[in-house]
Design goal:
- The chain is of the alpha+beta class.
- The protein is built from five helices and six strands.
- A hairpin with a 2-residue loop joins β2 and β3.
- α2 runs antiparallel to α5.
Length: 143
């Protein structure tokens, strides 16, 4: 380069979501802005997948889904919860249940919808954000 200077090299070491969260604030603001819609999409995509998999009996599980997005100078964070009183029971199931008179009511099997959908969507989001960072010229190690 001119005046004997070398081209500047930038790299991020990212092994997983925690590393991505730690390193992204160091990236230029434009990268944080470009990544923000993908972070929000992770929450809305997971919410749609989970809602579609919930039973329609009362609609309470689907109605309990809530997501939000928080943007700060450090980046964008999205969250997804289910506030339904039955969400955890449906997700994780129950052991064999009995009435107060000892009658067997069986066990409720785990629905296993919320956690797998969130894990899957988060994994795809991390890949997409890493691709955004790499397109901007950063070298990403790990992943």
């Amino acid at each position: 380069g001119r005046h004997g200077s070398k081209p500047m090299s930038a790299s991020l070491q990212i092994k997983g979501l925690d590393d991505l969260k730690a390193e992204l604030p160091r990236a230029p603001g434009a990268l944080r802005e470009e990544s923000a819609p993908r972070v929000e999409a992770a929450a809305t995509n997971a919410e749609a997948t989970i809602g579609a998999a919930y039973p329609e009996r009362t609609g309470a599980l689907k109605a309990g889904l809530r997501h939000g997005v928080e943007t700060t100078a450090a980046g964008t964070r999205a969250w997804l919860v289910n506030i339904s009183t039955h969400a955890a029971i449906w997700e994780y199931g129950t052991e064999i249940r009995h009435t107060s008179l000892g009658q067997n009511r069986g066990r409720m099997p785990a629905g296993k919808v919320f956690v797998p959908a969130v894990v899957r969507e988060r994994r795809e989001m991390v890949k997409d954000v890493i691709a955004i960072v790499e397109r901007a010229g950063f070298k990403v190690h790990g992943g």
